[in-house]
Predict the 3D structure of the following.
Amino acid sequence: MATFARSRFLGQVIAVTGSVGKTSTKAMIALALESLDSRIYQSYGNWNNRIGVALSLIGSPWDVRLAILEMGMSQKGEILELARMGRPHIIVILNVGAAHLEKLGSLEEVAMAKGEILEEAKPGDICVLNADDPRVMSLPVPPGVKRVFFGRSLECDIRLVAAESISGGLGVRVVLQKNLEMVEFVIPVPGLHLALNACAAAAVATCFGVPLSQVGRSFSKYVPVNMRSEFLVAKSGIKIVNDVYNANPVSTQAAIDMLKSIDCYGKRVAIIGDMLELGAREIEYHEEILKHCLDARIDFVGITGKRFLVAAENINLIKKANVVHAVDAKNLVTKILNCLNINDVVLVKGSRSMQMEKVVDAIKEMHRFTPSPCLDNPSS
């Protein structure tokens, strides 16, 4: 059915892949292209596996001009199958990072698996590549396929000139350049990592003739995708960064940096669950995240999962007064709630199966505070 649906689709297909940022970039592409034509279709949520891409093609209206699909994988051959199914005209490769290493083994293997999306590319197609990522740049592009580069280097077709957190960390000021044209805008959500996603989306939109100035206006209306960099204020007044949809070392480090950038008059609290599918080095990656929390001067850390427990024990964190551990999200809730106060900013993050949304829901429902037995050392 998916093959039939694709064969009857007369518009163009844009496919986005990468280790992090696929869903947010897909949403930004759709936002920028809506100024060109209202007949834009994007796949639901993160429907990026075999079933999700098939359902997206089947669900695409026949009269849509542009369809934006997300393509993910956990092992070799999956992206190639999705590329053959979707037959994209424009391919976006955002990055190659530490994800799905359990089955792929190394970052080089991850890059090769992501690069499968290029194997079906034909002359006249467009490939949008992250010029800042050496592994992306090492991927072979078939003859006749146009390459469009985004990133910080001077040679990029769309260049990220500047990006900084503003508005107390709740917005990102971005400057993009195409040839001699520059545009400045503010993405009204936290997360400096969104600037490069915006750069990638701008590279796609300008391929369709959307002026860079219009791209900037579109991105100034960006709304975060559900459970990704969502900034919430609980009934108690506690501020929450809800980033629980999934996690790997790259996205978790970016989330901690986001927490660090947000103005805080209480404690900065990181509540993080295990990152899965990382293979033989999984404990090392979890240790690195805990060390990053220390380097970022996060005041209080709640961890759940056996991997973070081993990592915390390895680096002598588990008995620290400002670190708590529980076997799962439900049990972590009971330990963490009494450690929070009204001026705190709380990041919640973890792999999908860790169900970290349970923590978010519990904090959102807090009405009052009890005297805290936990460390209460406001950030300076």
